[in-house]
Amino acid sequence: MWIDSNAYIGHWPFRQVRNSTCKDLVERMDANGISASVLTNFNGIFYKDTQAANRETYDEIKTNRKWKERLIPFAVINPVYSGWERDLEESATKLGMKGVRIFPKYHRYNLDHSACIAMVKKCRDMGLPIGLTLRMVDSRPSSWLDISNEWRLSDIMPIVKAVPDAKFMVLNLSGSTHLEKEDLELFKKSDVFMDTSGRNVLDLAGLMETFGKEKFGFGTHSPILDYKTGALRIASLREDEADAKTREDLQSGNIKRFLGL
């Protein structure tokens, strides 16, 4: 079984992105042998009211009863937008969202903002993981309107330190993964899941040795990135780097445990 921990639907305003609907995503899953996908709606990054995108996701998934068994939606919440508490409550209790994604660079706040910390604490109390993306798109060929600076792993440590008992997903590891000793120890103790989509997951075995093999799992960051690279990084592990149980955990076991599936 393979579970994609990092997929999207919706539209990206700065480049043409195909496969933007749940139907497209499920067809892509079927073609690649993927049993389930954690998905987020791009539109929530750009709508002033992110909840409109969360409702779009809910409405689209419910059009096909089989999709509910395979699609695991995460809500986009903006903690500096008025009414985020109501949005979070509705997303978790009425829309069936299994976690939250935040996009501070696009919504223009820092991770140590008091509203961000309050929201992460609320998610912790509700048992919802928080998804953080180190890079959405490669800044080099992007539109001048898009975000040009990217996160390193160390850049997310302020929120990990502020709410160390929350659950965090760290996705698209594209910047430096170096952490100072004290931060590394905290990170290793924290409930963190990282996907295999980012360009800095070239040495997956080395990353598992540093952070712990239980913290990693398959992810694609599709449709912005391709559908194969995240899987090939697992498939290319040597036998002395990953036994059958470790491969199974990377394909689906770790994300299932992390999300309580």
UniProtKB/TrEMBL annotation:
Residues covered by the Amidohydrolase-related domain: 44-261
Cross-referenced Gene3D superfamilies: Metal-dependent hydrolases
Entry superkingdom: Bacteria
Molecular function (Gene Ontology), one example: hydrolase activity
SUPFAM superfamilies: Metallo-dependent hydrolases (SSF51556)
Protein name in UniProt: Amidohydrolase-related domain-containing protein
Organism: Cyclobacterium qasimii
